[in-house]
Design goal:
single chain; 212 residues; alpha/beta; four-stranded parallel sheet; two-stranded parallel ribbon; globular
Length: 212
Amino acid sequence: MNKILTSEELFNANKIVPVIVLNDIDKAILVANALNDGGINVMEVTLRTPNALQIIEKLAKEAPYITVGAGTVLSEDQYHMAVKHGAKFIVSPGLTPELAKVKGVYNVPFVPGAITPTEVMYALQYGIDILKFFPAESYNGHMALKSLASVFPKVKFCPTGGINLENANKYLSLSNVVGVGCSFIVTEQLVAQNNFEKITELAKAAAALCKQ
């Protein structure tokens, strides 16, 4: 039987989580290889493109060295479909009763979004204490998370949205941040240009932040 991955284990192993918008199935493995070559072995494939589920399925089957998850999961149906296609973790920008309910069906990490104290308390009611903070930079994420730490000492966050090489360490230095979601490592432009060397370069630079 496969070992069940917990949210804690997911982020203990992966402080940098590339958030990827990808529609070209043929380039999925190339992107995975580029990230792996750069020292990152996790991908959050957002459900924002028609082929996202097929890409998750391909990565799950053909790139076992990558922990592939589904992002931008907005509904119960999407949650079911993502896990069915091989997603090893689920990320949502928010939390609904439907998503909280289906969370209990699967043994995969679920990281919903929360920004306000009310949203954090709502998540805690469902036993969820590792949360996404999105969009981080738009909500002055560093200061907000710093303030939330004293109120919710047991809650951890993965800020996403506007995170880059210049500000990632600022977030990672916070006691209540377990990792950061980054969209700058794999951009649509780099994929369209087949510039996988640049993706590897950015992955290396991002991974190096965790060693500082």
